[in-house]
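Lesson 9: reading folded outputs for more than one chain in a single document. The general rule is that every protein is listed as its sequence immediately followed by its structure tokens, and records are never interleaved. Here is the first one.
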Amino acid sequence: MEMCQSQGTTEGQDDPQAREWLRRAFEKTARWPAGFKGFTADLMINADGKEVKGNVTVKSPQEVVISLDDPDLHKWASNTIGMIAVHRGPRTFEQSDGKSVLTLEQGESHPLGRTIHIHDALKSHYRIKDNRITQINRTMGPMKFTINIEDSAVTQDDKYLTTRYTVYYFNPQDGKLTNVESFSDTHVRVGQADLPASRRIISADNGAVAVKTLLFSNHRLF
């Protein structure tokens, strides 16, 4: 898990230290290589014991095509794999959070590291420790969320690739917790890219706990 692209702003005065710290963390985060043309894979989805097979083609975050004979799971899988493509897609720091004014919170001693404020439309702020993004906070319309990044693998390219994280969703009006999702990912190296091999999501919503898994197999690069 890592940063989604932010919209830039000119408010405030940019902090060179914050920019350097975030750039280092950005450059240590694994992405698909520049020029990546996408992949296809077979899918197996298990939603609380209900199994459905299909396949997926991913060419970009905007080009995710899924074949699956279940309308509800089709929508869920499309959204889930689309977000994987958004987070993993190739881009530069300047195309992402580097477009925004960045400032550093002063006087902190937090277990997850220092806070960097990204002065964007999403009111984002991250925590960074040891050149790694450890927490992401955003507000998107009626949704406010915090992502705690708990575990990462180190790729062949010496980049961090998130393997476990938890998302906490809050009501922006009263701050109450509305949902929690726990993500566990594995990956497989195909050519020069680390592609998704599995994703498990455990979610708590409206008094119930649901578990869904996505298994990718037979990957083929374009």
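And here is the second record, again sequence then tokens.
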Amino acid sequence: MPQPQVSNADRAALREGVRERAYGQGYQPSPVDRLGVWLSARQIRRYAGSLAGKQLGDFGCGYHAAFVRTVLSQLERAVIVDSALAPDLKSHRNVTAIEGILPGVLNQVPVASLDIVLCISVLEHLWDPLAALQECFRIVRPGGLCIFNVPTWRGKRFLEYSAFRLGLSPKDEMDDHKAYYDVKDFWPLLVRAGFRPRNIRCFSHKLGLNTFAICRSHGGADITT
């Protein structure tokens, strides 16, 4: 009996869709997790500047979209994407909530529609991170910013010790990691996604436990220092 044909897109969605819950869904993040979120939010605010009147996307935002909640009153609109989202966010008048599996679900976001795109501590969970980066590049407006955060190989040791030995982080989050990225690993992916080298700033932070990148779309000022 012939087997049903499965497209490459469907196959990728099946591979990506093995998670049972979004980050923060059904549990309270630990102090270690909250510290990491706070440090990333501090960097976002530093490089994004004023968010007043901006349209911002947070892809892989977590069930509660913790960062977006802190800036929602400033934004014209927020587009939040994850496998599951809190009901109050889905009903908020300034929020476009999209539930689905990354990166495929990002095809619902129009081209060049957002001023700022965030993808924070997400790419390490994806089998196809390049596809997600290319979607971010497609979605951000000319001159807009994409901001990324990923754990490094040094961070792998800390995260796994925290989760598996100390029990201070969710074990299933660590078991869902597919890769780790030092600057030398992450920068080439950003270029392959479409960002020009002069529009990329990529560096380690959180004591070398993470790699952070700020990428400006074509049409904006150079940001490399």
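What the second record shows: The longest helix spans residues 31-48.
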